[in-house]
Amino acid sequence: MNERVQHGAQVRREVLGDAHVDRAEAKTTEFTRPFQEYITEAVWGSIWTRPGLDRRTRSCITLAVLTALGRPEEIAMHVRAAIGNGVTAEEIAEVLLHTGAYAGVPAANAAFAIGQRVLDELDSQEG
User: Fold this and answer.
1) Mean pLDDT of all residues in 8-30
2) Which of 58, 104, 123, 126 has the lowest CB atom count within 10 Å?
3) Which residues form the Carboxymuconolactone decarboxylase-like domain (predicted)?
4) CB 115 within 8 A of CB 96
5) 47 and 40 in contact (C-beta within 8 Å)?
6) Tens digits of residue pLDDT in 53-106
7) Helices and strands per DSSP (H, E), number in the chain
């Protein structure tokens, strides 16, 4: 395993959490293994580790792009990651609102609904 894969695996766990990564790895098949290896090395090991942006900023950008593309399953995961990276609920709302102005109200509306559901789940786990 090369250094980018090792560092990518570490960053992926730090951002998404062990439970998420363990579930993804448990579902990996011979067919999906090359893709899992690719995202671990290229996305987590080459992009998320770059020094030009901090993780909070990367989380905000990721939420904006996922909202614009209409990827609800990824939005939920990255709302959790953003909270873990220190992005507040208010900042997440601002990212989604700002994205709505440029990517469309329907996309932002769906992302707000997902974001609220995740924030409610996180609140109920704390209390």
Assistant:
1) 94
2) 126
3) 35-114
4) yes
5) no
6) 999 999 999 999 999 999 998 999 999 999 999 999 999 999 999 999 999 998
7) 7, 0
pLDDT, tens digit, 9 for 90 and up, residues 34-65 = 999 999 999 999 999 999 999 999 999 999 99
Q: Which structure tokens are listed for 109?
A: 């509306």
